[in-house]
Design brief:
27% strand; 33% helix; nine-stranded mixed beta sheet; alpha+beta; 15 strands
Length: 399
């Protein structure tokens, strides 16, 4: 299940210390593609973010994205921007396109320069592999990994008035995850589709998808300098152009939503040292914005996350997080559930079974539901627990 007229691959290019670690990915469209992207809202933006945003402003179409792991190319000054531009130039030279038609992304340690002397040979070798038609989506997904423990991909195929459209995506992310993606993460996401769609419509669909997926996932509350989600649509499916307000567009948008949500949940599942995926649902808030704000605070609470790791049904930590979210609530109306067990009712504890609660907390996937009983607003957030391994991984990240 892969969109037509796209070729992707990954290889070792000389950034990673281990030679068996792929560290460079290429995503290439045989035909000009419409592009949309969202980048980190962190005011400290990595060179690839700045370069890619600039290329999107210049170019009506995009032909390729080149991405590396092992070095974030962030906080590297003018040299960092030159290196990011050079990566685009090398790909463009091989593909016979303009450098501004190539986007770039990086992930890894902040403050280090790319080993540019090694990259041209590796990028050209990767291009030769991809150009020969050896499509390897798994290699591309592996090449953008850092502390990830598995490659993350997702896809959907839909029918739009008789035309088959495929949406495929891959993402990396395990630590420094709390994306705050704005139009023009570390989290990198690359989505490819063969749909015929205009840039304005594609941008709207991406914003909607990100709002309920990547912008609703957190591992540690830290927003990266490099967070990026890029989607390319090359029109190879041959469908009638997708237009907002029409059924085919709605079907496509739902497929993009599903792919992004699948990938976001994988990020939370693979959080550094994580032993549980935690879904937090806030219901019956005054509005959706309040619900999302509360869900985010609960999801980033170290006390909630460590309680889940310790299999402790400590609902007091949850209600305390709700109360400090900066949202107007009535504490005496709040109900809290762990799985299907009500642990708090009207802001006070219930006589729940600790042994049954333990069985819920022993599951790999855990759901926390918070009913504010104030309105119709609702939101979901996805996170993971904090384990001892999280401390170990991050204490030794550079070494």
């Amino acid at each position: 299940m892969f969109p037509k007229d796209f070729l992707v691959g990954g290889t070792h290019c000389g950034i990673a210390k281990k030679k068996d670690k792929k560290d460079m990915a290429l995503f290439y469209s045989k035909r000009p593609a419409v592009a949309a992207a969202m980048f980190t809202a962190n005011l400290v933006k990595a060179a690839p973010v700045l370069v890619s945003a600039g290329h999107l402003d210049k170019s009506a179409h995009i032909r390729a994205v080149v991405a590396n792991s092992g070095c974030a190319n962030a906080c590297t000054g003018s040299r960092g921007k030159q290196d990011a531009e050079e990566m685009c130039r090398i790909v463009a030279e091989q593909a016979g396109v303009k450098a501004a038609e190539v986007l770039v992304a990086s992930t890894g340690v902040i403050g280090r320069n790319l080993p540019m002397a090694r990259l041209p040979k590796g990028i050209r070798a990767l291009w030769n592999t991809v150009a020969a038609g050896r499509n390897d989506s798994r290699a591309a997904a592996e090449a953008i990994m850092t502390t990830d423990t598995f490659a993350k991909t997702a896809a959907r195929t839909i029918n739009a008035d008789g035309s088959e459209i495929t949406v495929w995506g891959c993402v990396k992310g395990s630590g420094m995850i709390h994306p705050d993606l704005k139009p023009h993460a570390t989290m990198l996401g690359f989505i490819l589709t063969d749909a015929v769609i205009g840039r304005k419509e594609l941008d709207a669909a991406l914003r909607h998808a990100v709002g309920a997926s990547f912008n609703c996932v957190t591992v540690d509350g830290d927003t990266s300098t490099n967070d990026s989600v890029i989607v390319l649509a090359n029109g190879a499916a041959g469908n009638a152009p997708l237009k907002k307000g029409k059924t085919p567009y709605a079907v496509f948008s739902s497929a993009l939503d599903a792919v992004c949500l699948d990938l976001a949940r994988m990020i939370a599942t693979d959080g550094e040292g994580a032993t549980h995926l935690i879904e937090i649902e806030v219901r019956q808030a005054s509005n959706d914005r309040d619900a999302k704000k509360i869900a985010a605070v609960v999801a980033t609470s170290p006390l909630v996350k460590t309680a889940i790791f310790g299999k402790d049904a400590n609902w007091g930590r949850i209600i305390a997080a709700v109360g400090r979210a900066g949202v107007t609530i009535n504490p005496s109306l709040i109900d809290i559930y762990l799985g299907d067990i009500m642990v708090a009712r009207h802001g006070m504890g219930t006589d729940f079974s600790e042994s049954k609660a333990l069985k819920v907390l022993e599951q790999k996937d855990i759901k926390i539901s918070i009913d504010l009983n104030m309105g119709k607003g609702q939101a979901k957030y996805y996170t993971c627990d904090y384990s001892i391994d999280y401390i170990k991984i991050n204490a030794n990240y550079r070494t």
